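Sequence, please.
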């Protein structure tokens, strides 16, 4: 059977997973009466809830006698560690762009890597049936993007289709029949070349491992494209590291291939196909699985380094152990090491005390997803403020810079630019009208300056702004950046909060808790209206007297408290504060550092 390997690239929420649903449905991968969940490729609970793709996943469909292997790539830069390696498995890319929003940061990030690998793109202008869609303008923007990224003349001569993933149609013209996705299927068969590896099918077996997984019955699983030769269950293979050193020799226990939404055991892995191999115990991503006679490893894409680190510790608050059942540092360490094994963009290091672990990754969202998964599994954790990882080159200190693209109402452009270029040491790169009373702002801002900015940005723009960010480059250190301006309200007592006490505290600032909630000494219960921290008593009840007069016992009416999400809490805290995470609740608390630790952290930041 002929084979085509293609990756689908898109920015967050541009409709990529919905489009893959339609391709699976219309190619006959599902039975007529089969119950299939919407966005079937989003297998993770968090992916479904947030509408983002976190894990790169592959599927395959059959169309006119040809097997099309489709790889669904993550749509957020924090999960870019998945994307970079995936592109080495495919021979073409399908770039999906929202016809109303145009190319966005993730589009640029992944497309630049695809063009550098020489892959020829197909452009799908999705959501052309939206009232605000401007497909012709979007097409011009895509062309300009390709030109700016150094595309060759052959890559610039790209075909395109107009589509509506939700309604299940794609056509080569706007006035097409709008019936099904056959125009896109046929374009993939015409435009994407068959795998060049088919010419090497008689050579010794070689495969570059690009994604790592685990199965309770099969053990370690490595997925990749077969670069040469064939392999069968029972064959003896070896694993070579990126440097060519031998990692292990193993026997292939099973070979799986993607067939629709499931992986099916097959008798033979052939050159050019994307398969999963089981049987190894040490081999990992970027290793070459090959026949014993092969001596050189296949070239592997380097993985971008982590840009932030967060300290995971045990929950040692007075309320520890009430919600979760996994509270020991040993159990937390095992879980983090397991995560680092399957997610190569994450790095885990032990701290000298042994009860906390420094986890380094791509961004706040990646850390938030890991913590959210752990709390759902029953873990209790204390999380520190994210810290940016610096680099030293030629005696100069470098820090990560991110490209920020913001779409905001014209009325709020002033405050956004002032915050980015003033307090947060950013540089304005571009500012232009984005239609319908909106402005697009592009700026290069240090990663340090963006920690905690998302919530402030949503407040400044009255919830109407859209902020996207992506790693841009390393640049010389730009000096200290001021953190949170407001102080916090700290509980000075242990017990249950009282409505009367909170009512009196409302004039001091915003509260994070309501009445009848457990609090303890050192717990942060609100934000102070001034820049200093203030210890308060949320347990103080109303003094009773024997005097009864009109208006004395009026009802206490509290303003609803501010409830922070996990990511908001992590971004909000300062260096001497922690987020207490349990399966049921997220709390903030003070971490009282000894003077030496406080001095060391201050020196590190500045």
């Amino acid at each position: 059977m002929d084979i085509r390997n293609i990756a689908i690239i898109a920015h967050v929420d541009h409709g990529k997973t919905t489009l893959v649903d339609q391709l699976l449905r219309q190619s006959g991968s599902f039975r007529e009466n089969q119950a299939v969940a919407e966005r079937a490729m989003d297998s993770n609970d968090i992916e479904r809830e947030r509408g983002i793709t976190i894990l790169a996943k592959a599927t395959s469909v059959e169309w006119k006698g040809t097997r099309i292997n489709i790889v669904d790539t993550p749509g957020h830069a924090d999960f870019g560690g998945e994307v970079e390696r995936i592109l080495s498995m495919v021979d073409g890319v399908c770039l999906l762009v929202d016809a109303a929003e145009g190319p966005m940061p993730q589009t640029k990030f992944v497309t630049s890597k695809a063009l550098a690998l020489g892959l020829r793109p197909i452009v799908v202008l999705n959501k052309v049936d939206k009232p605000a869609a401007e497909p012709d303008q979007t097409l011009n923007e895509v062309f300009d993007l390709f030109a700016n990224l150094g595309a060759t003349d052959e890559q610039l001569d790209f075909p395109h289709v107009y589509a509506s993933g939700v309604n299940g149609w794609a056509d080569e013209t706007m006035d097409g029949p709008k019936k099904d996705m056959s125009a896109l299927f046929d374009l993939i068969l015409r435009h994407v070349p068959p795998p060049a590896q088919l010419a090497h099918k008689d050579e010794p077996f070689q495969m570059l491992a690009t994604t790592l997984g685990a199965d309770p019955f099969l053990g370690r699983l490595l997925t990749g494209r077969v670069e040469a030769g064939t392999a069968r269950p029972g064959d003896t293979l070896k694993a070579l590291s990126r440097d060519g050193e031998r990692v292990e020799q193993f026997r292939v226990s099973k070979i799986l291939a993607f067939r629709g939404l499931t992986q099916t055991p097959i008798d033979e892995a052939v050159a050019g196909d994307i398969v999963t191999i089981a049987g190894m115990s040490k081999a990992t991503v970027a290793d070459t699985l090959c026949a014993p006679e092969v001596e050189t490893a296949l070239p592997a894409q380097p993985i971008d380094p982590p840009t932030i680190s967060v300290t995971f510790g045990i929950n040692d608050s007075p309320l520890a152990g009430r919600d979760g059942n996994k509270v020991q540092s040993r159990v937390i360490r095992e879980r983090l090491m397991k995560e680092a094994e399957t997610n190569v963009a994450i790095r885990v290091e032990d701290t000298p005390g042994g009860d906390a672990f420094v986890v380094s990754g791509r961004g706040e969202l990646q850390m938030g997803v890991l913590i959210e998964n752990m709390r759902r599994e029953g873990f209790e954790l204390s999380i520190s403020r994210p810290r940016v990882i610096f680099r030293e080159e030629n005696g100069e200190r470098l820090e990560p810079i991110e490209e920020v693209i913001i779409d905001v109402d014209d009325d709020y452009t002033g405050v956004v630019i002032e915050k980015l270029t003033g307090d947060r040491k950013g540089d304005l790169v571009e500012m232009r009208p984005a239609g319908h009373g909106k402005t697009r702002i592009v700026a290069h801002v240090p990663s340090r300056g963006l920690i905690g900015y998302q919530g402030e940005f949503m407040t400044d723009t009255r919830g109407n702004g859209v902020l996207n960010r992506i790693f841009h480059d390393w640049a010389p250190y730009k000096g200290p950046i001021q953190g949170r301006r407001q102080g916090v309200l700290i509980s000075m007592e242990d017990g249950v909060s009282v409505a009367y006490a909170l009512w009196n505290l409302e004039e001091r600032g915003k509260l994070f808790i309501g009445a009848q909630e457990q609090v303890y000494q050192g717990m942060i219960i609100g934000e102070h209206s001034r820049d200093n921290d203030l210890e308060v008593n949320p347990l103080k009840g109303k003094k009773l007297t024997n005097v009864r007069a009109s208006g004395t016992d009026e009802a206490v009416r509290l303003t609803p408290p501010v409830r922070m999400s996990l990511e908001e809490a992590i971004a909000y805290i300062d260096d001497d504060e922690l987020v207490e995470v349990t399966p049921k609740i997220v709390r903030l608390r003070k971490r009282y550092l000894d003077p030496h630790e406080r001095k060391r952290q201050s020196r590190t930041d500045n």
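The chain has four domains: 2-194, 198-290, 391-476, 488-542+558-573.
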